[in-house]
From TrEMBL:
InterPro entries, alphabetized: P-loop_NTPase, Small_GTP-bd, Small_GTPase, Small_GTPase_Ras-type
Protein name stated in the entry: Ras family small GTPase
One example GO MF annotation: GTP binding
Keywords, sorted A to Z: GTP-binding, Nucleotide-binding
A cellular component annotation (GO) from this entry: membrane
Record-linked Gene3D superfamilies: P-loop containing nucleotide triphosphate hydrolases (3.40.50.300)
UniProt cross-references to NCBIfam families, sorted A to Z: small_GTP
A Pfam family: Ras
A biological process term (GO) from this entry: signal transduction
Organism annotation: Naegleria gruberi (Amoeba)
């Protein structure tokens, strides 16, 4: 009988932001490396799981919770924040309103996490639409710097920076969970 494989530790990551910014498309692009062109169909909530080997050589399961961007589903978003260990706040570089709403998502995370320091990433999506851009890269970088969080620009359509973005937040969530004891370091030996 082959040796029993250890279950990959889970890294709960919440993808949030206003409606129609491409949250679901980012998650699907990361999980399946595809982009499906379709009319906007709001997500209520969806889960995506993908195992990934991180920098420490260990395999982790990224449990990606894709949340609704519509205000009527705030209860589901609050629940996702309570259960999440890392957060990707996504806005569209072609929708100024979605960028302006980032502050509200930051405040909601801070409120629900009660001041607990958690990994957060700001993601400007749709960088393939450069000719329609209304939010500059510098504005995104400045907002991220203000909050002391990581910043990426991505394109769910072309796949640009999508994997790097998810790996980056996963590494930060892993480190945070190791530090807090929520997952154990396999290299640790008890005497």
């Amino acid at each position: 009988m082959p040796p029993k494989k250890d279950k990959a530790p889970e890294l709960p990551i919440v993808v949030m932001g206003s409606g129609a910014v491409g949250k679901s498309c980012l998650a699907v692009q990361y999980q399946h490396s595809i982009f499906e062109e379709h009319d906007y169909d709001p997500t209520i909530e969806d889960n995506h799981r993908k195992e990934e080997e991180l920098a420490d050589g260990r395999t982790y399961c990224l449990n990606i919770r894709d949340t609704a961007g519509e205000p009527e589903f705030i209860g589901l978003l609050e629940n996702a924040i309570e259960e999440g260990e890392g957060f990707m706040i996504v806005y569209s570089i072609i929708d100024k309103r979605s960028f302006e709403e980032v502050v509200g998502f930051m405040e909601l995370i801070q409120k629900k996490k009660g001041g607990e320091e958690v990994p957060i990433m700001l993601v400007g999506n749709k960088c393939d639409c450069e000719s329609e851009r209304v939010t500059t890269t510098e504005q995104g970088q400045s907002l991220a710097k203000h909050y002391g969080i990581t910043f990426f620009e991505t394109s769910a359509k072309t796949g640009e920076q999508v994997k790097a973005c998810f790996i980056s937040i996963a590494e930060r969530v892993k480190e945070s969970m190791l530090k807090s004891g929520k997952i154990k370091d396999k290299n640790c030996t008890l005497m």
